[in-house]
Amino acid sequence: MTPSAPPPFSTLIRTASQQQHTEAESSTFMGDLLGGRLGVEAYARYTEQLWFVYRALEEGARALVDDPVAGPFIRPELMRTGALARDLAHLRGEGWRDTAVPLPATSAYADRVTQCARSWPAGYVAHHYTRYLGDLSGGQIIRDRAERTWGFTRRGDGVRFYVFEEIPNPAAFKRSYRELLDGVRVDEVERRRVVEECGRAFALNTAVFRELGEEFPLSA
Ligand code: HEM
């Protein structure tokens, strides 16, 4: 009998992170935010945290464009820092950079992304996947809620982070992204390490939600 083929990497990475996805999704802060129970200040503070994370992801991306493992994932149509800057200017005013402060969990998250970008391209892919594929999926639910709760213009300032102008067909994009994952040229041991890093990426996100929840303790 021939042993069955291992599952495609995209399936492996997805199933391995399912439980943590549920945890992140059902965090108190996310629940309150999506439930419309928090003010726009909480949304602005969350958006600010995203800016620090995406700055690390996208500054790190520059050096990885030609990397054989991470390079194919670096796509200009995914870049979010420009959209986040516009959202924050809308939410906080033009001087938003002077007052933006990362939470300790956000600094830890951004530092880990930077560390991977500098020294472990496959680990960087784990972070890239966790954020961008999530934004293209559940991010759309968050956008819809934010528009309704705080009255942003549909797909306009305040929610531009969630609007991928240059990706008209997110489902097709996600399919091609998964193909890229399946084709990543690393061995089984390295694949397992990437899956673990993905778990770490989810945990880092959950830690940010936890600290945001402490700052906006509505459900307490
Ligand atoms: C309230 C918050 C969230 C909601 C409502 C949500 C919802 C979803 C939905 C509906 C999908 C699509 C699943 C599919 O394609 O079948 C998805 C996928 C995904 N989400 Fe979330 N999500 C949330 C938070 C997060 C967070 C915090 C992360 C991590 C930072 C994340 C990462 C991902 C990833 C990586 C995928 C792609 C899975 C794959 O197809 O490989 N999500 N999410």
Give an overview in words.
This protein has a single domain (9-215), classed as Heme oxygenase-like (Heme Oxygenase, Chain A, Up-down Bundle). With 220 residues, it is mainly α. The mean pLDDT is 96. The protein is built from 11 helices and no strands. The chain has helices spanning 9-16, 18-25, 28-34, 40-62, 81-92, 96-99, 104-119, 121-136, 139-150, 170-182, 188-215. α4 runs antiparallel to α5 (81-92) and α7 (104-119) crosses α8 (121-136). Helices cover 67% and strands 0% of the residues. The structure holds protoporphyrin IX containing FE (HEM). The site of protoporphyrin IX containing FE has 16 residues, from α2, α3, α8 and α11. Its EC number is 1.14.14.18. GO terms for molecular function: heme binding; heme oxygenase (decyclizing) activity; metal ion binding. It comes from Streptomyces hundungensis. This is Heme oxygenase. Keywords: Heme, Iron, Metal-binding, Oxidoreductase.
